[in-house]
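G., before I forget:
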Amino acid sequence: MVKTEMLAYTIRRILMLIPVLIGMSIITFAIVHAIPGDPAKTIAGEKATPEQLQEIRESLGLDKPAYIQYFHYLGDLLRGDLGTSLITKVPISEEIGPFLAATAELTAASMLIAVFFGVNLGILSAWRQNSWWDYSAMLIALIGVSMPVFWLGLMEQWFFAQELGWFPSNGRIDARMEFEGITHFYVIDSLLRGDYAALSDVLMHLILPAAALGTIPMAIIARMTRSSMLEVMRSDYIRTARAKGLSEFWVIYKHTLKNACIPVLTVVGLQLGLLLGGAVLTETIFSWPGVGRYIYDAINSRNYPVIQSGILVLATIFVVINLIVDLLYAWIDPRIQYGKE
Amino acid sequence: MASESNMVAVPSQNIPSGPPLTGGSPDKAEAIKDFLRAFLRHKSALIGSIIVLMFLLMAVIAPLITPYEYTERSQELLAPPSADHWFGTDEMGRDLFTRVVYGSRISLWVGFVAISGSIIIGSLLGLIAGFYGGWRDSLISRFFDILLAFPGILLAIAIVAMLGPGLNNALIAIAIINIPTFGRLMRSRVLSVKEEDYILAARAMGMKNSRILWKHILPNSWTPIMVQGTLGFATAVIEAAALGFLGLGAQPPEPEWGTMLSDARQYIQLAPWTMIFPGLAIMLTVLGFNLLGDGLRDLFDPRMKR
């Protein structure tokens, strides 16, 4: 019974994705084709020759009616063709891989930081509610929520990289280090090679941008953990556990954490969009060669196909991960009513 | 789920929802007094509103409190904070204090206009979707889904890439990306208010749809929109600064905080103050609106607490 319901819910959720994906493709299509005036002129710049303009019109199919252009665009996307970069002349689907890996590595590291510190800060606050600990942890969380990620990144770069010199301020790895990507996840690559000097260098490069990107989700997770922990700690079975003489630490960690994890999981899922969006800003500051930096450079060079496809790829990842989180959530928490909003 | 949202709908009827629509009855005046008393006792609402008012005042009286013009250049480039230049000067010798103060005009303006736009369009769409249901609901809800499928700032980048960089286009982009937040909220409010007894009664008495919408549903859906609007203001300020930082928002020499941060990037070692003050201004403004929004949420409806 439950299994068939779950299956139906999964299928329904996947079907609902189709109009969303089509809508997303229309929006990214519009990035180029709805540019007011002559898109070719905007893309090529003021000083373009008529030949250059013609070349751009042909390569982007701008000389055909809009609906035909859209179906071409959709057809290309379905075949996995993300267009060609106007600068490097390389198909975007070929060159985007390493950028994606860099963004994935950064996002995963920030999520780890956010969950680890967020959950522990939340527990600490709930455990010692209304204490000095609680107030300072919640103050950090409040400031964290209001912190623009790009400012935090700059401050970190200035203080920890320039002033103190503890961490490198730019890039993924020391430029002098010879390093060939296998998976393009540098942490994994250096482990696969057993190259621990590279591993430590990669980790040092990762810390500042990951901390900057992870701060806002950390703050939100901390607030969420605190409130759900407080709720659980007041419940009867925790009181029973305490009465049985289990140590405070044991009660908190084992019993309450397990029960508080569902709301926290939702927040973690929701924060992913923030992370992927924030990645554009963080990668710009730390010259982190991810998709965000790829899009930023494309904006500055008016490389429109890269802007389109970069945004579409990140948004697709976001939508798919949201779907997975939703399904996980429904699977973990049996109280969710399938098929209802 | 449905019963919970029904419960939420009840207390807001006793709460002043914006300016009274038909003259002030003594009950309403009493309710407003009660609300103000609770507001002043609520720490985060109070601190938040003080910060917000401070920035608002700063924006209004900017010419009176700044010693220079925001484009005025002095001989001292990248000078550290001093008695002449409280926040120091930037790479063109412009007074940073003056620029940060004038920056509040831009940020508050963008936040206000963009969020008002999102509220108006979002509420209208949400109202139609929730009240009429059917194909209108499906169409509008899918539209919201599509907008929400993009991480916010990415959609804003896409829109500005299309329209061209500039403050006005950034403002339009921010308004668009925030539409679904208000639209979904309004839709869910309408859905729960619609089933209330007094609406059913009004319908039974033969009241017209448009009258029911204006007289009953809209006023009763207003409070959560205002709360969300305050929190949305904070988001809009950050988004405007982010677009400015990426070179897509306000263009030089406009003293926009994000644009100032982007200029400061090259000098962070030489002149960290060029980065510290504009960033601090963004953070404080956002903090103010977040505190105020959280406070209003607690005050209007304790059950909406996160």
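Chain A has two domains: 1-79, 92-332. The domain at 92-332 of chain A is CATH 1.10.3720.10 (MetI-like fold).

More on Monday.
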